[in-house]
Amino acid sequence: MSEPVTFHKLSPTPPEMAAKFGDLHPPFEQQAAVVESNRCLYCFDAPCMTACPTHIDVPKFIKKIATGNLAGSAQAILDANILGASCSRACPVDVLCEGSCVMHRYNKQPIEIARLQRFAMDAFHAAGDRVPFVPPAASGKCVALIGAGPASLACAAELRRHGIAATIYDARPLPGGLNSYGIAEYKLPLAESLREIDMIRRLGVEFHFGTTVDSARLKKLEAAHDAVFIGAGLGAIHKLGVAGEDLPGVTNALDLIAGYKTGALTHISERVAVIGAGNTAIDAANAAVRLGAEEVFMVYRRGPEQMSAFSFEYEHAKQEGVRFHWYKGITAIEGTDRVDGIRVTSLEVSSDGSLVAVASSEFSVRVGMVVLAIGQATHTGFLGDAGLTIERGRIVIDRATGQTSNAKYFAGGDCTNGGREVVDAVADGKRAGRGIAAWLGGK
Ligand code: SF4
Question: How many angstroms separate the Cα of 296 from the Cα of each of 195, 287, 330, 340?
Fold first, then answer.
């Protein structure tokens, strides 16, 4: 490699973070929210409601904004989705509620459901220590929940609706899972995630942080509780399996995002390569740009048609200045004491559809950071001999109740679906909370 790649020192203080990671979609002002809510047709059998995995009554909450009843609007949202605030910021609404709005049929802009939902939820949380319901008298039943991400949070809140004690265990120091650690700050700031979880804590949910649950601890938790909910998410990001992968300067997309959100990331290289083309890869690439990298490019083995990122995320990344290299594979990560480049080869699709390297096409690219974003491994080893059926790395559940093949265990979220949206995890957690209550003889 020729000249060394330089690094920029980061000082992620709150004002600096706010400047770098301003809202992707700015919040509505009061008057604009009322005008937008009055555009809604309040459809009967509203398709936006069907498209939402948690089935928020969209016309109901929008109508309450139009009539100035913000508390009632937030209540309508929280009745269906306890993480209504974070979902209003993190949901891919273009392919969910807003994507199904009837306005499309009339060649009009869809109702800005997410921004209206955020408007109502921001007002709710800004009003202080409010809770969406008062839990009933204690049922005497208790449930341990493994993982403090969206699925467990939604399940725990649902259990509290039934008077069931809920205790969440998580290895990390903060709650929220991907909501706190893995979603780009310009979509969902860490402080907003924690504010929402504080509301769930006020419902009587207990948290134990810094608590790694292995198979031995799981056995103890099973013995001490009436049921166990597994909402442990996915495991580590896959490795490439090439030389140089353990060099300093090689990281992964989730660590990069968690690093800048929590202040653990202290430097960003001027040149960053992100390997992969999913939504998390794009979040990491955009973050690198906003943190000050001059050149950020994504390297993907196939073309734009095959990338798993949503098309609006792809367009957003291009606007941020991320460059894309299609049909390229990494054959090595270069450097001695730390990364100073990647070795890249061009790929082409053979007659049987597989990818093959183009002869004599290898070249080196100078980079100071390599960010891996090629999918996550499964995370079920800690289940030990609990007797849960695992297929293709996913815990098998009854989709209606969340119950596993061991009747005392329920599960939901990424560890059961392989990695979907926050709102899918919330829907899973809510269903499992009801499933557990029914199984324990609650409502
Ligand atoms: Fe309103 Fe669109 Fe939903 Fe109809 S589909 S209720 S217009 S947001």
Answer: 32, 10, 16, 14
Residue 152 CA, ligand 1 centroid: distance in Å: 30
| Total of domains in the chain | 3
Q: Is the C-beta atom of 57 inside 6 A of ligand 1? A: no
How far apart (Å, rounded) are the C-alpha atoms in residues 275 and 252? 9
Signed CA dihedral, 140, 143, 144, 147: sign only = negative
In whole angstroms, what separates CA 3 from the centre of its chain? 38
Q: What is the DSSP letter of 93?
A: G
Q: What CATH number should be reported for the domain holding residue 399?
A: 3.50.50.60
Residue 83's CATH number? 1.10.1060.10
The whole-model pTM stands at 0.93
CA of 115 to the centre of ligand 1 (A): 14
pLDDT, averaged across the chain:
94
Rounded to whole angstroms, the Cα distance separating 290 from 52 reads 31
Indicate if ligand 1 lies below 6 Å from the C-beta of 43: yes
Question: Relative to the CA of 39, which ligand 1 atom is closest?
Answer: 7
Helix (H, G, I), strand (E, B) or coil at 241: coil
Residue range 242-300, pLDDT digits in tens: 999 999 999 999 999 999 998 899 899 999 999 999 999 999 999 999 999 999 999 99
Closest atom of ligand 1 relative to the 49 alpha carbon: 3
